Amino acid sequence: MNHHMGVTGTAAVELLAAATDAALRSRRPEAWVCEAIRPAMAALLVDRDPLPPGARDPYEGGAVGNLVYADPEARFHILVVVFPEGTSSGIHLHGCWGVIGYLQGGDEETRYRWRDGRPVEESRHVWHQGDITYLLPDEMAGPDGRAGCWHRVRNPGPGVGVSVHVLCRLPADHPHDFWDRDEARIVAFPFVERAPGRWQAMLGR
Ligand SMILES: [Fe+2]
């Protein structure tokens, strides 16, 4: 545990963090790192009691990322992302690697490729409990050649969608942008701590 944590970790979270630490110490490419994290994520997803109390709770009825681990060396963090039924993330970018494991409910994920100055839908997939996917920025470069992975996550229901995200850097530093469809422009979409350990992506002003 460390002072960044909003809630207490569990054995499954600690093992996932340890696997991520070991993978990063290998200094191998991001795709290799994600594969190395996968077994610990798979173990967490079948664990009987994988998350600390409150980690599956929405924030004021809305989507939230509940922080369950922050790396003391600031290389990564683990968020439990909660999407109440019917909520959507909007189209957004992750500028560095991530591993996502689906724990509860169904999440529909759409991925985009940049074409002619806007994100164009490339694939759509409904993930279920036990599924694992990666964010690998090199796969979906942004408009200016910047590495990025553009996607949108939506919970079509029934029930609350809960997924576990191992993401590069710490929440406040995680590179995260939003596609403003109406204005046809990219805007900042930083994670903001709304309450201790409870992070929401907020449109930049
Ligand atoms: Fe995302």
Describe this structure in words.
The chain is of the alpha+beta class. The protein has one domain: Jelly Rolls (Sandwich), CATH 2.60.120. The protein is 16% helix and 39% strand. A 7-stranded antiparallel β-sheet has the order 7-4-9-2-1-13-12. A 6-stranded antiparallel β-sheet has the order 6-5-8-3-10-11, with no helix packed on it. A hairpin with a 5-residue loop joins strand 1 and strand 2 (76-83). Helix 1 runs antiparallel to helix 2 (30-46). It is globular and about 45 Å long. The N and C termini lie far apart (33 Å). Mean pLDDT is 91; it is low at 1-6. It binds fe (ii) ion. Fe (ii) ion is lined by residues 89, 92, 94, 151, 153.
Question: How is the topology of this model organized?
Answer:
Blueprint: H1 11-25, H2 30-46, E1 64-70, E2 76-83, E3 92-94, E4 98-104, E5 107-115, E6 118-127, E7 132-135, E8 149-154, E9 161-168, E10 176-180, E11 185-188, E12 191-195, E13 198-201
Antiparallel strand pairs: 1-2, 1-13, 2-9, 3-8, 3-10, 4-7, 4-9, 5-6, 5-8, 10-11, 12-13
Residues 89, 92, 94, 151, 153 line the site of fe (ii) ion.
